[in-house]
Amino acid sequence: MTPRKRVETMEENRARLITAARRAFAEKGYANASMDDLTAAAGLTRGALYHSFGDKRGLLAAVVNQIDEEMAARAQAIGDRIDDEWEALMAVGAAYIELALEPEIQRIVLLDGPAFLGDPLQWPSQNSCLQSTQTSVRRMVAQGVMAPVDPEAAARLMNGAALNAALWVAASDDPQAVLQRAIDAFRLLSRGLLARPG
Question: Record keywords: DNA-binding included (predicted)?
Answer without folding.
Answer: yes
